[in-house]
Amino acid sequence: MPTSISDPKLTFKGIVKDNWVPANVLSITPAFHTGFLNPSGSQYQVVFPNAAESTFTSSGYDAMSPEGPVSRRVGTVPCMIFAKRAAKGSEGAINPKKFLDVARQEVERLIHARVTSVTDMEYVSVVSSAETFPETKENEPTFYGWTVVIQYVWRRTLS
């Protein structure tokens, strides 16, 4: 059992970025990064801003193993998808809400297709998916957003 695991944000970002199929997403490859929406960045962005973990029990431990006390950790990583409208008068502009819908499906497909490749986690799944409204300042292009929440479980030992 691991005493630690790879950074879940980077693990899931790698899965999504490395396996993204533009043909499934209106031939668009967005910018992928950790952090939050970059308003002056790419028109299409997929970001992994943070991770949160907790334990199943109030003590933080649920078993003993030959390696020592075991803590089962459950965590979440939001995968946030953002798109903004193309400049007025752009020919062949894609509706950002259409991009969000197909990008959400692609993220969910990639996470579910690659769960067995994440060997240091016991469980990986998409647990929720919902529209996101990023805060924008006036005079900035309007971004539309969607958040896919990825949940994972891993076992940690003290040694």
Describe the protein in words.
By secondary structure, the protein is an alpha+beta fold. The protein is 19% helix and 36% strand. It is built from 2 helices and 7 strands, in the order αβββββαββ. It has helices at 8-19, 96-113, and strands at 31-34, 44-48, 52-55, 63-65, 68-84, 123-132, 143-157. Strands 1, 2, 3, 4, 5, 6 and 7 form a 7-stranded mixed β-sheet that branches. Strand 4 (63-65) and strand 5 (68-84) form a beta hairpin. Helix 1 crosses helix 2. 22% of the residues are buried.
Question: Separation of termini?
Answer: 9 Å
Query: What's the pLDDT, averaged over the residues?
Result: 87
* Beta-strand percent range: 35-45%
Number of strands: 7
Provide a compact summary of the structure.
With 159 residues, the protein is α+β, with helices and mostly antiparallel strands.
Question: Key features?
Answer:
single chain, 159 residues, alpha+beta, seven-stranded mixed β-sheet, 2 helices, elongated
Would you spell out the secondary-structure blueprint of this structure?
Elements: H1 8-19, E1 31-34, E2 44-48, E3 52-55, E4 63-65, E5 68-84, H2 96-113, E6 123-132, E7 143-157
Parallel strand pairs: 1-2
Antiparallel strand pairs: 2-5, 3-5, 4-5, 5-7, 6-7
